[in-house]
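User:
Hi there, any thoughts?
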Amino acid sequence: MNRAKMEQLVTIAGDRASLDRIASPDAALAIWWRQLPETLRVALAELDLHSIADISVDIDFSGSIAAALRTAEYPEASVMALSSDIDLLVRRDAALTGEDRLHVQLAVVENDPCSRFRADCTTLRLQCTYLGPGTQWCCVDGQDAICEVPTGSVGVFKGRSLLDPPAILHRPPPFGAPRLVLTIDPAGSR
């Protein structure tokens, strides 16, 4: 694949406005390349992934994930840092999708549920890996060139509902360390 075509399909930039590029008809993936705030990095480093529960909830774009984090037994320092970041990403995703209600999943992934590359049957899927290796992706016509959304960065993948056949495929990385992964979809699309 040539560079110009790749730049049409994938946007990678260091500000959250880079996610807006996913609205382009040719775009298949937008990545906000970012470093997590220090308070969040510290809170995540102190998490015991075996003592927290997975979260899967529908929330309004103006709501907060804080109560769900507390119910899932996240320590209070993690609740404050994570809810601030996740709430920001929920609002960002709502602006991208035009949806008022979103499905938020925050899960500890300890195995490799699906090692093949795929495109999801949704409109837009936002993903952020907070701990562990990030989501891998490749172009449909260049599967030998595997890339990764870095840990802490945000990727918005265009799903089959908007781009079929897909131009970009993704998968979890080969199994290794446990991962803490955030996924945001429009409510009802799961």
